[in-house]
Amino acid sequence: MSVEYFHEDGCLKCAQASPVIENVVSGYPDTNFTSYEITSAFSLANSYGVTSVPAVVVNGSIVISYNDYEGDTDKLSSMLSEAIESAPAKTYKNDLSTVEYLSDKSLDDQTPAVIFIAGLLAGFNPCLIAVMAFLASAIVSSGGSRKDMLVLVIGFCAGIFVTYMVVGFGILNTITSFPGLKDAITAFMILLVAILGVWHIYDAYYISKHSKSSFKTPHSFVDLMNHARGKNILLISFVGGGIFSLVKAPCVGAVYLMILEMLLSGGNTVNAVLYMGLYNFAVVLPILILGALLALGLDPEKVNELREKKRVEVRLVTGIILILLAALLQLNII
After folding, report:
1. Could you write out the DSSP letters of every residue in 52-114?
2. How far apart are CA 73 and CA 81, in angstroms?
3. Alpha carbons 103 and 44: distance in angstroms, whole number
4. Within its chain, how far is the Cα of 45 from the centroid?
5. pLDDT tens digits, one per residue of 276-301
6. Per-residue pLDDT averaged across 149-177, rounded?
7. Which of the residues 78, 110, 129, 246 has an alpha carbon 20 to 30 A from that of 157?
8. Could you tell me which residues come within 8 angstroms of residue 86 by beta carbon, excluding any fewer than 6 positions away?
9. What digits encode the pLDDT tens for the residues 187-234?
10. 41-46 long-range contacts, Cβ below 8 Å, gap at least 24?
11. Is the preceding peptide bond at 54 cis, omega within 30 degrees of 0?
12. Would you place residue 322 in the very low, low, confident or very high pLDDT band (cuts 50, 70, 90)?
């Protein structure tokens, strides 16, 4: 008989459950008890279908999660005792779960690289390139210096980064506080990714027919950025970056939603926030690089010409990828 307990450091619910679980297990001397910190046991937990902590797996077949007892420790104690006494014999397939976890751990080690690459792909977006070309033109036409251009780029990127971190952390915190909402939020995010994928494909068609995008940039945003000069460059560019990250969410945010849904399934808030930070940095990295090149003398008109030539293809490919990702997420393949 085996009892495997998944917890997370700093988790108050885990701190409440731990002594109860240990007390019950101590009453069954023949039980093999193992405790896992979820950060280092993603694959093993996923093999049992564990997506949140605290969770207990008895003999590889009975899973007791927080939603099953909702903080009632007496109920937890009763459920765990009943599971230990009635759990079916562990099958050969489940005996392999630890081996599968160890063999898959190398795949988990690749997660940061995958997330960083996804962020870079999202960062190379026609919306971002168009705005950077606009910002460069605004600085040059207003007589601003190259230093002003760098300050503007840094402020703009900081605004995007902070906004996406706040939004993402808010979603993760909601899931942590109300685990019962996870399935509904996950389903909504998958649906939204699919809808945004269709919209990208439609936008490719719209651009080819009308030579303009259906993703509109509000005039108020343009007016705001036109005032980004002098001593107010850093503040206005920061605010502009935050506004841009919201109004251009259909352009940039779809891949972000996909990444966030994948992080939610991991069940570890700390890692999710770190991965979010890595992803958001990768999103703004192309802007930082492009901004530096513009500050060093790259012609904004050439950047805009490249965007105009390739935006249909970028929209179409992005739309297809998003629809495919939504399907894979729905099928729990990724």
Report:
1. SSSEEEETTTEEEEHHHHTT-HHHHHHHHHHHHHHPPPPPHHHHTHHHHHHHHHHHHTTHHHH
2. 12
3. 10
4. 20
5. 788 888 878 887 887 777 777 777 66
6. 79
7. 110
8. none
9. 777 787 788 889 889 988 988 888 877 766 555 655 665 555 555 777
10. 41/6, 41/101, 42/108, 42/266, 42/267, 42/268, 43/100, 43/101, 43/104, 43/105, 43/107, 43/108, 44/4, 44/97, 44/98, 44/100, 44/101, 45/6, 45/267, 46/265
11. yes
12. confident
Hey, what amino acid is at 197?
A: G
Q: Where are the alpha helices (DSSP H) in 181-299?
A: 182-210, 219-226, 233-247, 249-264, 269-295
Q: Determine phi and psi for 58, rounding to 5 degrees.
A: -105, 120
Through-space distance between the first and last CA atoms of the chain, rounded to whole angstroms: 31
Residue type, 115: I
At 168, list the tokens. 């993402």
CA 238 – CA 236 distance, rounded (Å):
5
